[in-house]
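Sorry, explain these tokens?

___
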Amino acid sequence: MRFISLDHSPFAARVKTQILHKQLPIEIIAPAHGLRTPEFLAAFPLGKIPLLELNNGDYLPESTAIMEYLEDIYPQTSCRPEDPIDKAKMRVSMAYGDTHLMPAIMPYFRSLLMPEYEFDKTEQFELLSQTLGKFERWLVINNCNDRGFYKANIDLGDMALFPIMWFVKTIIPMFHTQNVFADVPAIQQWQIWIDENAAVLSVTQSMDTAFHAFLKSRQVTKK
């Protein structure tokens, strides 16, 4: 199998983290066609990265579907809890990243892609702060003790969320001087914990290089 990825994609990054962490025999490649081109859309109907090229030549899209599939066929070094409630909580983290946190930072992405795009930065920062506060409360209830955040093993929820959280940490200072993580200590501890994972570190470095190359290509100077 081959994993079709772009280093600056947070959705590709989560699957790449899983592949590296589990040391799976999957080649990681760039797409053969440019995104949104007729050739790309003809080959991949959903028109998005990432994609998993299966051994029979078919393609599996959508990062969370790919991650669950890889766990099913490669159960060793499991990244999915056995206990049903822990597994459900893992999927809450996956859903939070996609349906709560990503929408909260999308205006910032759009502004980087389209310099003419305008939005209320004060209002959006407040929304983002509230969104982070939701996950802070979730961590406090489910993964904290008297000493703060605690978790034994990384799972698919952590892998799915960390690239989006990385973009929050990287992009928001380009628009605001305030620290968006100032009032979410459990999230800060979670970030320190997950950054200790070798696969996360490798993927973070790739994302950082690719994203800053993108910024340089557009000569982005926000603030």
Remarks:
- The chain has a mean pLDDT of 93.
